[in-house]
Amino acid sequence: MAGRPAAFVLLGPTASGKSTLALELAARLPIEIVSVDSAQVYRGMDIGTAKPAPAERAKVPNHLIDLADPTEAYSAGRFRDDATRAIADILARGRVPLLVGGTMLYYRALAAGLDDLPPADANIRAAIDAEAARRGWPAMHAELALIDPKTAARMQPTDPQRIQRALEVWRITGRPLSALRNSLALPPLPFELKTFAIMPRDRAELHRRIAARFDAILKAGLIEEVKALKTRYRLSAEMPSMRSVGYRQVWEHLEGAYGSATLREKGVAATRQLAKRQMTWLRSFKDVENVDLANGAEQLAARIRGI
Fold first, then answer.
1. In angstroms, what CA-CA distances link 164 with 11, 33, 267, 290?
2. Which strands make up the sheet holding 62-63, listed edge to edge?
3. b (16+ CB within 10 A) / e for 70-102
4. Are the C-beta atoms of 100 and 10 separated by less than 8 Å?
5. Contact 1, 194 (CB under 8 A)
6. CB 84 within 8 A of CB 19
7. CA-CA distance, 261 to 38, in Å (whole number)?
């Protein structure tokens, strides 16, 4: 890494222990945390995103949190710009930047650049949503599989956000999303990224942690948080903020789609699906070093000091 300073990254699926490990590292090193979380960027979305509490932020500076209202769309491109500035500022202060999170698209945008894709088209998205309301998202996924089998194979039939985007790209450009995934030419980062990952080996234990986490955020007041957001902002179910895992299920519950028991069931299932997608992303990344949680803080602190 001669010539450029190092910024460190800690990735992992939801409920894998990233935040706890980051705080343990911060007790050993002069770390400032840069969030890699597409939901923590939104103001007022605190409980469902497990956003660091004010007391934690007072001890360890956290960046890229509370940047946008939940009515806004926050993109991977904006993340790349914001993260680059935050990391440069941390390095200028002589401290250690540690990027922590599970939004793999954001990490990819920072590490590998952005895909040359068209911007969103509200009219086309509305048309796709209307079709999905009539036919169901599995049918939309089947349509995508005929158009772009490579992209369809990477997503679940119950993943409306990604299915919608892939169909939108096809309808705008007439080309499949998989054919357009070429990184734009961007200037090199002014720092090197050294990436570590938590890859849970015990899937049953991860599922137990996911269930416990969802129960905890429900107990902490996730339903009341979503009620307050709906009162404060002019939200809709199709906004990216309300598509976040947990928030989507609470929204549907508040709209009368199902009761409390089903809310919990659907929330846990959606979180497990998210973790599965995150681990698929992680396995596709190169130059990522796995961290053993048994002695993760000491191991990682030693590696960072060595670099």
1. 26, 32, 21, 33
2. 62-63, 31-36, 96-101, 6-11, 192-197, 288-290
3. bbbebbbebbbebbbebbeebbeeeebbbbbbb
4. yes
5. yes
6. no
7. 27
Residue 292 pLDDT > 90, yes or no? Answer: no
CA nearest 15: which of 247, 219, 298, 293? 293
Is 0.85 surpassed by the pTM of this model? no
What's the token pair of residue 183?
Answer: 């990184």
Helices (H), the chain: 18-26, 54-59, 76-92, 104-112, 122-135, 137-147, 149-153, 160-173, 177-180, 203-220, 222-232, 247-254, 260-284, 296-306
**51: exposed, middle or buried (Cβ count in 10 Å: 0-12, 13-18, 19+):** buried
Residue 1 binned pLDDT confidence (cut-offs 50, 70, 90) = very low
Give strand pairing partners of 289: 196
51-91 tens-digit pLDDT:
999 889 999 999 999 999 999 988 888 999 999 999 999 99
Distance CA 232, CA 251 (A): 15
What burial letters (b/e) apply to 28-48, b meaning 16+ CB within 10 Å?
eeebbbbbbbbbbbbbbbbbb
SS (H, E, C) 85-107: HHHHHHHHCCCEEEEEECCHHHH
Judge whether 40 and 70 are in contact, CB under 8 Å.
no
Strands 62-63 vs 31-36: parallel, antiparallel or unpaired: parallel
The least confident of 64-78, 111-125, 166-180 is 111-125
